[in-house]
Design brief:
Elements: H1 18-24, H2 27-30, H3 34-50, H4 56-74, H5 87-99, H6 101-104, H7 112-148, E1 153-158, E2 161-167, H8 168-193, E3 195-196, H9 212-218, E4 223-224, H10 228-233, H11 236-262, E5 270-272, H12 290-313, H13 327-350, E6 352-354, H14 356-362, H15 370-379, H16 384-401, H17 410-414, H18 430-436, H19 445-458
Parallel strand pairs: 3-4
Antiparallel strand pairs: 1-2, 5-6
Helix pairs in contact: 3-4, 3-7, 3-9, 4-5, 7-8, 7-13, 8-11, 8-19, 11-12, 11-13, 12-13, 15-16
């Protein structure tokens, strides 16, 4: 039975009211930090021994007992107590129960303020690597799908209206590029997460002879926080991580929204494996993309966590305030949500097939080759603004006659511009447009194949 004495009992005569205990406890959610807390305590005890604040025997007893506690937690035999408030005090109480007075020495030159900051930095660091890995897995699925549809042409949209033809593979690789930037943001964020706050104690440091650089090295940090007040009094590393997650969730939501539209009867561009869909309780014919809809919705939940963190920190005086306890609720939930979303989206991408015949029919609508016609006139020497106006008039006629641009005769074209000749048909139609695109970032087949090869090589496991 763990001793449930409060760490501040020497100052107080009255017991904490149960209502206050219930309201202020955090172990119901910060128990997730047990591994990081024990990891930090092992490093801390190692440093204390090296600095002469623990004997080697005391250090070994502490480390042995902490490892036993970790095994007990991971085998679901450890009972967390809300009376002990948080994961830190639960583990410390269990340590003292096992090894007595030696366990009481562990908190030497340490406060829960720098302890929780450490745990959160360790936890965020681990989760950043995990999210990057999951994002890369999603990129691989998108690249694989792009390779399956390397020659398929789709209508490209602006304002959700037919715009210009693009290769489906080029479209899919657009999301690969977005997710690559998400990975880069997370990796950059990691450079600010990966600093050790140990040694800051409550806010001012300690009068005891310690070596914060040693614990930082043991725990794999790049460096130590250089201001003790800042080390315990800010959570901008959590907010930055949350910002990265929010942008990533936005990209997931955009893809989900687009594919929700594409699997409607109105678009009919794709089919999702029925094992990834649900039906209706009343309409027998329904096949609903609920998983995609919830991927779209989860973004709002992630945004809510970011706003919560901003609001939490916006008016806090330095240094630590108990308000910061609530950061974990948001960060844990956001991370779990994004992780689950990435795992699910990987499976959905793998289980999607594109309806090539429907897409081909859609490419016949909307005058996707109109811009190519304007650029044809530019190559003939007509200023672009004039070419734009000419093609606009041609499109109006084609609409009236219910024809495609390629269905107009040379004589009909010449009524709008004498520059148009029979070579215009080499550019008209989506297949011809695609062949004539130029530039390394364009949807030109050669450029897309080159980029697909690039991603294949980059994402090889």
């Amino acid at each position: 039975m763990k001793q449930e004495k409060k760490p501040w009992a020497g100052r107080f005569e009255k017991e904490t009211q149960p209502l206050v205990e219930a309201f202020t406890e955090s172990v119901s959610f910060d128990w997730r930090l047990y591994k990081q807390d024990i990891q930090g305590s092992i490093a801390h005890s190692t440093m204390l021994a090296a600095c002469g604040l623990l004997s080697s025997e005391e250090r070994d007893d502490i480390i042995r007992a902490l490892k036993e506690i970790q095994k007990e937690i991971e085998s679901n035999h450890f009972k967390f107590s809300k009376k002990l408030e948080d994961v830190h005090m639960n583990i410390e109480a269990a340590l003292i129960e096992r090894i007595g007075e030696t366990g009481e020495k562990l908190h030497t030159a340490r406060s829960r303020n720098d302890q929780v900051a450490l745990d959160m930095r360790l936890w965020c660091r681990e989760e950043i690597h995990s999210i990057i890995g999951l994002t890369e897995g999603l990129q691989r699925e998108l690249v694989s799908k792009a390779g399956q549809y390397i020659e398929t042409i789709i209508p490209g949209f602006t304002h959700l209206q037919h715009a210009q033809p693009v290769l489906l593979s080029h479209y899919l690789l657009a999301y690969v590029e977005m997710f690559e930037r998400d990975k880069e943001r997370l990796a950059d964020c990691l450079s600010r997460v990966n600093k050790s706050p140990l040694g800051a104690c409550a806010l001012a440091g300690t009068t005891l002879p310690i070596d914060p650089a040693m614990t930082a090295k043991i725990l794999g940090f790049q460096s130590i926080c250089t201001n003790s007040v800042d080390a315990t009094g800010d959570r901008d590393f959590c907010i930055e991580f949350a910002s990265c997650l929010s942008i990533l969730a936005m990209h997931v939501s955009r893809l989900a929204e687009e594919w929700i539209l594409w699997c409607t009867e109105e678009f009919g561009f794709l089919d999702i494996d029925e094992s990834l869909c649900t039906g209706s309780s009343i309409m027998p014919q329904k096949k609903n993309p609920d998983a995609l809809e919830l991927l779209r919705a989860k973004c709002a939940r992630v945004y809510g966590g970011l706003v919560s963190l901003f609001t939490l920190m916006k008016a806090l005086p330095l240094s630590y305030n108990r308000d910061m306890q609530e950061d974990k609720v948001a960060v844990f939930d956001m991370t779990s949500t994004v992780s689950a979303s990435l795992k699910l989206l990987c499976v959905i991408v793998r289980g999607v097939s594109f309806k090539v015949d429907n897409i081909k029919m859609a490419c016949e609508k909307g005058f996707l080759d109109a811009t190519a016609l304007a650029e044809y006139l530019v190559q003939k020497g007509l200023p672009f603004r004039q070419a734009h106006e000419v093609v606009g008039k041609i499109v109006k006629k084609a609409l009236k006659d219910k024809k495609k641009l390629a269905g107009l005769s040379v004589d009909e074209f010449k009524k709008f511009s004498s520059l148009i000749d029979s070579d215009v048909y080499d550019l008209l139609g989506v297949e011809n447009c695609i062949k004539h695109y130029k530039g390394p970032s364009s949807t030109a087949p050669r450029a897309v194949r080159k980029r697909l090869t690039f991603w294949d090589n980059k994402l090889k496991t």
